[in-house]
Inverse folding.
Protein backbone atom coordinates (compact mmCIF):
# COMPACT_ATOMS: atom_id res chain seq x y z
CA UNK A 1 0.00 0.00 0.00
CA UNK A 2 1.33 3.31 -0.89
CA UNK A 3 1.56 6.28 1.33
CA UNK A 4 -1.24 8.13 -0.57
CA UNK A 5 -3.73 5.25 -0.34
CA UNK A 6 -3.19 4.98 3.42
CA UNK A 7 -3.75 8.66 3.81
CA UNK A 8 -7.03 8.51 1.77
CA UNK A 9 -8.42 5.74 3.91
CA UNK A 10 -7.69 7.64 7.09
CA UNK A 11 -9.50 10.68 5.70
CA UNK A 12 -12.70 8.71 4.79
CA UNK A 13 -12.78 6.95 8.09
CA UNK A 14 -12.54 10.20 9.95
CA UNK A 15 -15.79 11.75 8.26
CA UNK A 16 -19.02 11.51 10.40
CA UNK A 17 -21.94 9.36 9.16
CA UNK A 18 -24.98 11.23 7.31
CA UNK A 19 -28.34 10.94 9.06
CA UNK A 20 -30.95 8.83 7.16
CA UNK A 21 -33.71 10.63 5.11
CA UNK A 22 -37.07 10.89 6.94
CA UNK A 23 -39.52 9.66 4.26
CA UNK A 24 -42.57 10.29 6.48
CA UNK A 25 -41.74 13.98 6.84
CA UNK A 26 -41.29 14.44 3.09
CA UNK A 27 -44.65 12.82 2.29
CA UNK A 28 -46.38 15.03 4.84
CA UNK A 29 -44.89 18.13 3.28
CA UNK A 30 -45.86 17.03 -0.24
CA UNK A 31 -49.41 16.28 0.92
CA UNK A 32 -49.69 19.74 2.46
CA UNK A 33 -48.45 21.35 -0.73
CA UNK A 34 -50.91 19.38 -2.84
CA UNK A 35 -53.78 20.25 -0.48
CA UNK A 36 -52.88 23.93 -0.65
CA UNK A 37 -52.59 23.75 -4.44
CA UNK A 38 -55.97 22.05 -4.66
CA UNK A 39 -57.58 24.67 -2.45
CA UNK A 40 -55.98 27.43 -4.48
CA UNK A 41 -57.16 25.89 -7.75
CA UNK A 42 -60.68 25.45 -6.36
CA UNK A 43 -60.70 29.08 -5.26
CA UNK A 44 -59.53 30.18 -8.68
CA UNK A 45 -62.15 28.03 -10.41
CA UNK A 46 -64.88 29.40 -8.13
CA UNK A 47 -63.78 32.96 -8.93
CA UNK A 48 -63.71 32.14 -12.66
CA UNK A 49 -67.14 30.54 -12.44
CA UNK A 50 -68.44 33.60 -10.63
CA UNK A 51 -66.98 35.87 -13.31
CA UNK A 52 -68.43 33.69 -16.09
CA UNK A 53 -71.82 33.79 -14.40
CA UNK A 54 -71.60 37.56 -14.26
CA UNK A 55 -70.50 37.72 -17.91
CA UNK A 56 -73.43 35.47 -18.89
CA UNK A 57 -75.79 37.69 -16.92
CA UNK A 58 -74.34 40.76 -18.66
CA UNK A 59 -74.71 39.08 -22.06
CA UNK A 60 -78.30 38.17 -21.24
CA UNK A 61 -78.94 41.77 -20.17
CA UNK A 62 -77.39 43.05 -23.42
CA UNK A 63 -79.54 40.64 -25.43
CA UNK A 64 -82.62 41.84 -23.58
CA UNK A 65 -81.59 45.44 -24.24
CA UNK A 66 -81.06 44.60 -27.91
CA UNK A 67 -84.47 42.98 -28.07
CA UNK A 68 -86.03 46.04 -26.46
CA UNK A 69 -84.10 48.24 -28.87
CA UNK A 70 -85.28 46.21 -31.86
CA UNK A 71 -88.85 46.44 -30.58
CA UNK A 72 -88.44 50.18 -30.12
CA UNK A 73 -86.98 50.53 -33.63
CA UNK A 74 -89.91 48.56 -35.07
CA UNK A 75 -92.35 50.82 -33.23
CA UNK A 76 -90.40 53.84 -34.45
CA UNK A 77 -90.50 52.51 -38.02
CA UNK A 78 -94.25 52.06 -37.68
CA UNK A 79 -94.58 55.58 -36.30
CA UNK A 80 -92.46 56.99 -39.15
CA UNK A 81 -94.52 55.05 -41.69
CA UNK A 82 -97.73 56.35 -40.15
CA UNK A 83 -96.38 59.91 -40.19
CA UNK A 84 -95.27 59.51 -43.81
CA UNK A 85 -98.43 57.85 -45.12
CA UNK A 86 -101.11 59.43 -42.94
CA UNK A 87 -100.02 62.38 -40.83
CA UNK A 88 -98.00 64.30 -43.44
CA UNK A 89 -100.58 63.92 -46.26
CA UNK A 90 -103.30 64.99 -43.82
CA UNK A 91 -101.29 68.04 -42.73
CA UNK A 92 -100.50 68.87 -46.38
CA UNK A 93 -104.19 68.65 -47.26
CA UNK A 94 -105.16 70.79 -44.27
CA UNK A 95 -102.43 73.31 -45.10
CA UNK A 96 -103.53 73.43 -48.74
CA UNK A 97 -107.14 73.99 -47.68
CA UNK A 98 -106.03 76.70 -45.26
CA UNK A 99 -103.96 78.44 -47.96
CA UNK A 100 -106.89 78.29 -50.36
CA UNK A 101 -109.16 79.66 -47.64
CA UNK A 102 -106.74 82.51 -46.90
CA UNK A 103 -106.32 83.27 -50.61
CA UNK A 104 -110.08 83.30 -51.09
CA UNK A 105 -110.48 85.59 -48.07
CA UNK A 106 -107.75 87.92 -49.36
CA UNK A 107 -109.32 87.88 -52.83
CA UNK A 108 -112.72 88.72 -51.40
CA UNK A 109 -111.24 91.63 -49.40
CA UNK A 110 -109.41 92.95 -52.45
CA UNK A 111 -112.49 92.53 -54.63
CA UNK A 112 -114.60 94.39 -52.09
CA UNK A 113 -112.11 97.28 -52.00
CA UNK A 114 -112.29 97.56 -55.79
CA UNK A 115 -116.01 96.98 -56.30
CA UNK A 116 -116.79 100.69 -56.84
CA UNK A 117 -114.14 100.93 -59.59
CA UNK A 118 -114.29 100.59 -63.35
CA UNK A 119 -111.42 100.38 -65.82
CA UNK A 120 -111.78 102.14 -69.18
CA UNK A 121 -109.62 101.19 -72.15
CA UNK A 122 -108.86 102.88 -75.49
CA UNK A 123 -109.66 106.44 -74.39
CA UNK A 124 -106.83 108.56 -75.83
CA UNK A 125 -104.88 110.84 -73.50
CA UNK A 126 -105.33 114.49 -74.50
CA UNK A 127 -102.10 115.69 -72.88
CA UNK A 128 -99.69 114.90 -70.05
CA UNK A 129 -101.50 117.44 -67.85
CA UNK A 130 -105.06 116.49 -68.84
CA UNK A 131 -108.04 116.62 -66.50
CA UNK A 132 -108.69 112.86 -66.66
CA UNK A 133 -112.08 113.07 -64.97
CA UNK A 134 -113.22 115.65 -67.54
CA UNK A 135 -111.91 113.47 -70.40
CA UNK A 136 -113.85 110.46 -69.12
CA UNK A 137 -117.02 112.47 -68.53
CA UNK A 138 -116.98 113.78 -72.13
CA UNK A 139 -116.72 110.21 -73.44
CA UNK A 140 -119.57 109.00 -71.23
CA UNK A 141 -121.87 111.85 -72.22
CA UNK A 142 -121.55 110.75 -75.87
CA UNK A 143 -123.62 107.68 -75.01
CA UNK A 144 -125.63 109.01 -72.08
CA UNK A 145 -126.18 112.66 -71.24
CA UNK A 146 -126.91 111.73 -67.63
CA UNK A 147 -123.16 111.11 -67.22
CA UNK A 148 -122.83 114.78 -66.28
CA UNK A 149 -124.50 113.98 -62.96
CA UNK A 150 -122.19 111.08 -62.06
CA UNK A 151 -120.12 111.62 -58.94
CA UNK A 152 -116.59 110.22 -58.85
CA UNK A 153 -114.39 109.72 -55.81
CA UNK A 154 -111.29 109.57 -57.97
CA UNK A 155 -110.31 109.32 -61.64
CA UNK A 156 -106.78 108.80 -62.95
CA UNK A 157 -104.77 106.87 -65.49
CA UNK A 158 -102.80 103.72 -64.76
CA UNK A 159 -99.23 103.26 -65.96
CA UNK A 160 -98.47 100.79 -68.75
CA UNK A 161 -95.35 98.81 -69.62
CA UNK A 162 -95.27 100.29 -73.12
CA UNK A 163 -94.72 104.04 -73.48
CA UNK A 164 -96.76 104.07 -76.70
CA UNK A 165 -99.77 102.23 -75.29
CA UNK A 166 -102.85 104.18 -74.25
CA UNK A 167 -102.99 104.28 -70.48
CA UNK A 168 -106.26 102.91 -69.10
CA UNK A 169 -108.43 105.09 -66.87
CA UNK A 170 -109.55 103.91 -63.47
CA UNK A 171 -112.61 105.59 -61.97
CA UNK A 172 -113.98 105.13 -58.47
CA UNK A 173 -117.72 105.84 -58.27
CA UNK A 174 -119.40 107.25 -55.18
CA UNK A 175 -122.64 105.47 -56.05
CA UNK A 176 -122.82 101.84 -57.11
CA UNK A 177 -125.94 102.51 -59.22
CA UNK A 178 -123.90 104.95 -61.36
CA UNK A 179 -121.17 102.37 -61.77
CA UNK A 180 -123.64 99.69 -62.88
CA UNK A 181 -125.38 102.09 -65.27
CA UNK A 182 -122.09 103.14 -66.93
CA UNK A 183 -120.93 99.52 -67.23
CA UNK A 184 -124.25 98.67 -68.86
CA UNK A 185 -124.53 101.47 -71.43
CA UNK A 186 -120.83 101.42 -72.41
CA UNK A 187 -121.08 97.71 -73.22
CA UNK A 188 -124.21 98.36 -75.33
CA UNK A 189 -123.13 101.57 -77.04
CA UNK A 190 -120.27 100.04 -79.06
CA UNK A 191 -118.51 103.41 -78.89
CA UNK A 192 -115.32 103.72 -80.98
CA UNK A 193 -112.59 106.38 -80.69
CA UNK A 194 -109.84 106.51 -83.31
CA UNK A 195 -110.97 103.15 -84.65
CA UNK A 196 -110.79 101.38 -81.30
CA UNK A 197 -113.74 100.30 -79.13
CA UNK A 198 -114.10 101.95 -75.73
CA UNK A 199 -114.21 99.13 -73.19
CA UNK A 200 -115.33 99.32 -69.56
CA UNK A 201 -114.65 96.41 -67.22
CA UNK A 202 -114.78 95.87 -63.44
CA UNK A 203 -111.56 96.55 -61.57
CA UNK A 204 -110.59 93.05 -60.50
CA UNK A 205 -107.74 91.73 -58.33
CA UNK A 206 -104.64 90.77 -60.33
CA UNK A 207 -105.34 87.01 -60.21
CA UNK A 208 -108.88 87.53 -61.52
CA UNK A 209 -107.66 89.95 -64.20
CA UNK A 210 -105.22 87.31 -65.42
CA UNK A 211 -107.97 84.71 -65.52
CA UNK A 212 -110.24 87.08 -67.45
CA UNK A 213 -107.43 87.78 -69.92
CA UNK A 214 -106.95 84.03 -70.41
CA UNK A 215 -110.66 83.51 -71.08
CA UNK A 216 -111.03 86.32 -73.65
CA UNK A 217 -109.72 84.35 -76.70
CA UNK A 218 -111.82 81.35 -75.66
CA UNK A 219 -114.92 83.53 -75.43
CA UNK A 220 -114.14 85.04 -78.84
CA UNK A 221 -113.91 81.59 -80.43
CA UNK A 222 -117.26 80.67 -78.90
CA UNK A 223 -118.78 83.87 -80.31
CA UNK A 224 -117.29 83.11 -83.74
CA UNK A 225 -118.94 79.68 -83.59
CA UNK A 226 -122.33 81.37 -83.10
CA UNK A 227 -122.67 81.05 -79.34
CA UNK A 228 -123.87 83.86 -77.07
CA UNK A 229 -120.79 83.86 -74.81
CA UNK A 230 -119.92 86.41 -72.15
CA UNK A 231 -117.31 86.67 -69.41
CA UNK A 232 -118.83 87.34 -66.02
CA UNK A 233 -117.63 87.57 -62.45
CA UNK A 234 -119.31 85.25 -59.99
CA UNK A 235 -118.06 85.88 -56.48
CA UNK A 236 -114.29 85.48 -56.68
CA UNK A 237 -114.54 83.39 -59.85
CA UNK A 238 -114.26 84.60 -63.44
CA UNK A 239 -116.08 82.36 -65.90
CA UNK A 240 -117.56 82.21 -69.37
CA UNK A 241 -121.33 82.01 -69.59
CA UNK A 242 -123.07 80.70 -72.70
CA UNK A 243 -126.76 81.58 -72.83
CA UNK A 244 -126.56 82.46 -69.12
CA UNK A 245 -125.16 79.04 -68.21
CA UNK A 246 -121.59 78.64 -67.01
CA UNK A 247 -119.41 77.10 -69.68
CA UNK A 248 -117.21 74.15 -68.77
CA UNK A 249 -113.84 74.16 -70.52
CA UNK A 250 -113.56 70.37 -70.40
CA UNK A 251 -116.79 69.81 -72.28
Amino acid sequence: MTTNEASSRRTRSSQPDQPPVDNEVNMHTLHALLTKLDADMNSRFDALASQMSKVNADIKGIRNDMADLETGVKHMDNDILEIKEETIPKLESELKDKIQELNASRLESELYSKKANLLFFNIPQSSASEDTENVLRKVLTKVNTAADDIEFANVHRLPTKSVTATKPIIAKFLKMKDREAVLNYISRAKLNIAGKPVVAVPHLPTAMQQERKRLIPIRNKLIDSGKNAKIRVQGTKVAIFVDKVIWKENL
